[in-house]
Specification:
Mn(2+) binds at residues 146, 213, 226. Belongs to the CRISPR-associated endonuclease Cas1 family. Pfam families: Cas_Cas1 (PF01867). Keywords: Antiviral defense, DNA-binding, Endonuclease, Hydrolase, Magnesium, Manganese, Metal-binding, Nuclease. One of its GO terms (molecular function) is DNA binding. This protein is of the alpha/beta class. It has 2 domains: 11-83, CRISPR-associated endonuclease Cas1, N-terminal domain (Ribosomal Protein L15, Chain: K, domain 2), CATH 3.100.10; 101-278, CRISPR-associated endonuclease Cas1, C-terminal domain (Four Helix Bundle (Hemerythrin (Met), subunit A)), CATH 1.20.120. 39% of the residues lie in helices and 12% in strands. It has a 4-stranded mixed sheet with strand order 1-5-7-8. A 4-stranded mixed sheet has the order 4-3-2-6.
């Protein structure tokens, strides 16, 4: 029996996660499908977005999305993320682009082994301190260095933009209660979390299995996002606050979009995650010449405790002695 509707794209036909748009944020519109494009309709007209180019579609307040639109996103491996006002709150996400469990198996193995988890965490910190030796530092020492680095980053951008900076202070339930720079930081970080979450899910890793952060459904999202804040979201937030914007949320999202596109973040994010989870040893510089190639394996296997994995899709009952 033929399944009705347009067949989903083959894996080889899909755009890689790092080659897609970082994110598109929509609010107060109806989201539907027109052929292979997502449409967003409001009182200003209709916007067409090719589904194959999307990394993540952020659905804000007032959005209504059709089943056909969600089918198209799923078939093209795009991630739909439902968010709150200004894109600050995260609620849910859609389907993964990944076909293989290789990354998540490697992630689970590393996070479950104390020494391997520490190796990955140290590798993450080496990415922030490329000129320093972090091999023998404890997690407490690494956290102290990171805290000092972030405080220094805030002070430097405050001086650069002339913003009066006191500390990071925000209420996740009330976006407008913070001062302009804290509002901009919240909006910028929310965009970055959405991008990173979409990449993690798209390439088949788990957002929950973090190495520095732990105990939260997005622990690994915060791990990876922290690698880029000093370069992307913190300077953007201070620039927006200094511009005396009258719509901090929207202006921050546009600025993050421009900064992300210019810095090829998706490609870096995919490469960093794969290097952290799959490289043979987390001892050298994370940006060295070692690159793991994705095999694109779409084979289902059956686990065997005493031997090699078996290929799925066949009946092994005849081999059993009843």
């Amino acid at each position: 029996m033929k399944i009705p509707g347009v067949p989903p794209a083959e894996l080889a036909e899909l755009n890689r996660a790092q080659d897609r748009l970082s994110f598109v944020y929509l609010e107060r519109c109806v989201i539907h499908r027109d052929s292979n494009a997502i449409t967003a309709t409001d009182d200003k007209g209709v916007l067409h977005i090719p589904a194959a180019t999307l990394g993540v579609l952020m659905l804000g307040p007032g959005t209504s999305v059709t089943q056909q639109a969600m089918m198209l996103l799923a078939d093209n491996g795009a991630t739909a993320v439902w968010v709150g006002e200004q894109g600050v709150r995260y609620y849910a996400h859609g389907r993964s682009l990944a076909r293989s469990s290789r990354l998540i198996v490697a992630q689970a193995a590393a996070v479950s082994h104390r020494d391997r988890r520490l190796d990955v965490a140290r590798a993450m910190y080496r990415m922030r301190f490329p000129d320093e030796d972090t091999h023998n530092l404890t997690m407490q020492q690494l956290r102290g260095k990171e805290g000092a680095r972030v405080r220094r980053c805030y002070r430097e951008h405050a001086r650069r933009t002339g913003i009066v900076w006191t500390n990071r202070d925000y209420n996740p339930d009330d976006f407008t209660s913070g001062d302009p720079v804290n509002q901009a930081l919240s909006a910028a970080h929310a965009c970055l979390y959405g991008i990173v979450h979409a990449v993690i899910v798209a390439i088949g890793a788990s957002p929950a299995l973090g190495f520095v952060h732990t105990g939260h459904e997005r622990s690994f999202v915060y791990d990876i996002a922290d690698l880029y804040k000093a370069e992307i979201t913190i300077p953007v937030a201070f620039d927006i606050a200094a511009s005396e914007s009258t719509d901090i949320g929207a202006d921050t999202r546009r600025a993050v979009r421009d900064r992300v596109n210019g810095g090829a973040l998706l490609d870096r994010c995919v490469r960093d995650i794969r290097n952290l989870l799959l490289r043979p040893a987390c001892s050298g510089p994370i940006d060295d010449e070692w690159v793991d190639e994705d095999t694109g394996d779409d084979t289902i296997r059956l686990w065997d405790a005493d031997g090699p994995e078996l290929v799925g899709g066949r009946n092994y009952g005849s081999e059993l002695d009843f």
